[in-house]
Amino acid sequence: MCSSVQKALFEEEDRVKKLQQKVATLEKRNKQLRDRVKKVKRSLRQARKNSRHMELVNRKLSEKLSSAGGQIPYINSLKQENSHGTYLKV
Question: How many CA atoms does the CB half-sphere of 14 hold within 13 Å?
């Protein structure tokens, strides 16, 4: 009778040990996933910040272009005074 109790106790201790190892593995994986989520959230915040900054820059540039209006001639409408071109002799 004593040996069957010892056997049951040993099996229970072995089961507890395996469960503890499994818990440790899952906790480690959980930490890895939490760290990954933190990195992704940080990247997302940075991307949103960059996006807002680029929208602001584009808005300011558009305002400058619209306020300049007719003051800045377009490249296509420019006429070269010397259209024959100048070449250097080598």
Answer: 6
Distance of CA 66 to the CA centre of its chain: 34
The secondary structure of residue 84, as a DSSP letter, is T
Phi, psi of 31, deg, nearest 5: -65, -45
pTM above 0.70, yes or no: no
Residue 2 is predicted with a pLDDT of 85
What residue ranges of the chain have pLDDT lower than 50? none
Per-residue b/e over 65-74, b at no fewer than 16 CB within 10 Å? eeeeeeeeee
Instruction: Enumerate the H helices of the chain as residue ranges.
Output: 2-68
* Furthest-apart CA atoms within the chain: distance in Å: 114
CA–CA gap between residue 85 and residue 90 (Å, rounded) = 16
